[in-house]
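Standup notes
- DV: blocked on the single-chain target, sequence here:
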Amino acid sequence: MSDLATLEADLSARIVAATDEASLDAIRVDALGKQGAISGLMKTLGTMSPEERQAMGPKLNGLKDRIGEAIVTKKAQLAEAALEAKLAAEKVDASLPPPAVRTGAIHPVSHVMEELARIFGEMGFALEEGPDIETDFHNFTALNFPPKHPARDMHDTFFLNATDEMGQRKVLRTHTSPVQVRTMLKQKPPIRMICMGRTYRKDSDATHTPMFHQIEGLVIDEVTTMADLKGTLMAFIKAYFEIDDVRVRFRPHHFPFTEPSAEMDVGCDRSGGSVRIGTGDDWLEILGCGMVHPNVLRACGLDPEVYQGYAFGMGVDRLATLKYGMPDLRDYFAADVRWLKHYGFSPYLLPGLAGGL
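- DV (later): unblocked, structure below
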């Protein structure tokens, strides 16, 4: 009797101390398996006398039943504890809003800026930046704008009450060209740079917005010519619109900061209410360009008898419209998530010249 009591106490203690189903199953095998302690005692009943078997049988069966029941009970407790832990880890507070679903997308303007940076970066252009609030010198004077130029009028430009060190009112930059001025003032030639960013003018309709985006490029050295400018822009058009056969033409124009100046047109098809670049017999003006005016070089401390170069500029929003088909520029800034969901780009699809823009 004392041996059975000791065995039961030992097995019961092990069952209570079990922390998982694996350790509990090991106890079951040790007690009730074919080679288990209780199973071994049950096998000895055949060697006992009838009187001994009559006395020992009920005791062994009772021990077997109690240990088996203790194992089943403990297994149920472990399963319940595991379920409680899982529920605690996965519980949802119904009083809180559901977790946000990541549905964001890259705005077409941001995507096109990345495309432009990749294209001109492959051509060796460095990316420069400048402030949105500019001085009259950087925005107008250094770029050869005469004092009475229409661009300086209040109805065309956003002037601020703040003044610069010369007492002149500051202005929200009307183009990104001031970055070219700042680059020439801080860096000696050779210069090969682009700049992109927000610009501001008092204009608003389907093809104009008070705030829009521009990209401009500048090359200054001792040997650059108009032919280099044409070659650069033709290579850009082919890369951006991803077409090998593109028709372009350069028309004489006037800009205060370049001489000679030109506007560049690309061949297109306007039929069907849309514009398709690279096909058709129509023309579309896409950018302005020219050789940097000697007065601009002098204003930036460069000798026009030694240095020359070219500059170009175009609207990023317009480039996005031509390539991706957005019909109205005002929708770019309407903060409509439906529009962005339709026209936006996945942040995982980064543009590149090797894999495509």
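- Follow-up: Residues 50-90 form the longest helix (41 residues).
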